[in-house]
Amino acid sequence: MIAHKVFVGVALVYCPLITFCSFLVFCGTMMYPGSSMNNQSYLLLSLSAADFLMGSFSIPMYILTYLPYTRENIFKNKYACLTWFASAEMAAASSIGSLLCISVDRYVAVVFPLHYHTLVTEERCITVLVLLWTVVIVVAFVPMLGWNTYDPQLYPLTHRCSFYRTLPHSYIVWVSFGSVSFIVVSCALMYAHILSISYRQMKLSERRASLVPTQNRQLKMRIYSVKITSLLVIIFIVLWLPIVFTAPLKYYQLFSPKVFEILQVVTQLFYFSNSLVNAPIYSMLRSEYREVYKVMLLTVPCRWKSILRDLYRTNHASVYYPTEPRLTTASSPVDYSVETLAPEKFQSISKERASKIQILNARNSILKKSVTLISKQSGKESHECRTNGTWV
């Protein structure tokens, strides 16, 4: 069938792209020192892991079931057939579950900004993600434990291993379509409220031109973060709506089998596309992460950890160089021997930043000399005071 050939061709392109992009995002989030392990990092790791599962496990199983050479063998084997269903359920459920967690996190941050850090703690975030993946794995593999209607004597083979015939009706309606529909509608409602609040805040900031620059900058960063996650969820809704509307039509037999097969292929490619854009959109729209992935793409994987550490030091050079000398006495000297960053290490990253590091090195040297002079002077004054028997 032509639709199957088109599906296999597109899926063969999707598979390596989704796997590589999600692996890149996962490694970048784990290795880059700037991405501290906070709630957003945990959510991004969960999302990239779900998409990696889609590209490395679920889509290859779909490809095997659409190839004529392996299709018959999978349909004839009960556990191979149920593994195909489990891969689809696990990858899709973990992906949309992670997106739901991201939506709830952003909703609390925008609607209850003063209570965000008390409501969404790191422990609660980790607990929710662990529960999410536990439920996803259990739900995906429950049919393999006996909750299925697989009949080895049934012909044709497409009826024997069919998502709508092999799995129970209640499982499909409530566990699959019901949960997906609930998540899509919930995300749409939450982000409609989030966008309305962000719009009001943006208008308010434009009217208050006398805002403190720091407050104005924080407000703009929060609105920008909302725009990123809003774009992510809007794409998620657009790409998942087709399968939400078309999948239940199988039970009403409104279309012929061939037409429904074409609709099924198109909607499957749509929600595969969601895994292709999830993690890149959520991370690459942030300027610092764009540079992280650019460096990772131009470097061999064995050097990722060291080059990302050097990149972080370059971006946050002020952390390693004190901007003001601290007054000390000779009796309590302070060690100002900070790590000197060699600019030649970063020529491949940014020549402009290398020149900034040279300036900071020179400033640091001047500050060391100033502190030494101040320490000597204060030590000399204290000695004179002790000699005269007086203290200032």
UniProtKB/TrEMBL annotation:
Domain of life from the UniProt record: Eukaryota
Spell out the molecular function terms from Gene Ontology: G protein-coupled receptor activity
Provide the alphabetized UniProt keywords.
Answer: Cell membrane, G-protein coupled receptor, Membrane, Receptor, Transducer, Transmembrane, Transmembrane helix
Q: InterPro entries given for it?
A: GPCR_Rhodpsn, GPCR_Rhodpsn_7TM
Keyword Transmembrane helix in record:
yes
- Protein's membrane topology: Multi-pass membrane protein
Which PROSITE patterns would you find in this protein's record?
Answer: G_PROTEIN_RECEP_F1_1, G_PROTEIN_RECEP_F1_2
One short Pfam name that applies is: 7tm_1
UniProt cross-references to CDD domains, sorted A to Z:
7tm_classA_rhodopsin-like
Where is the protein localized? Cell membrane
Q: Name one GO cellular component term.
A: plasma membrane
Membrane-crossing segments per the record: 6-30, 42-64, 125-147, 171-194, 224-245, 265-285
In what residue span(s) does the G-protein coupled receptors family 1 profile domain sit? 18-282
Per the record, the similarity remark reads: Belongs to the G-protein coupled receptor 1 family.
Tell me the protein's name. Adenosine receptor A2b
Q: Which organism is it from?
A: Biomphalaria pfeifferi (Bloodfluke planorb)
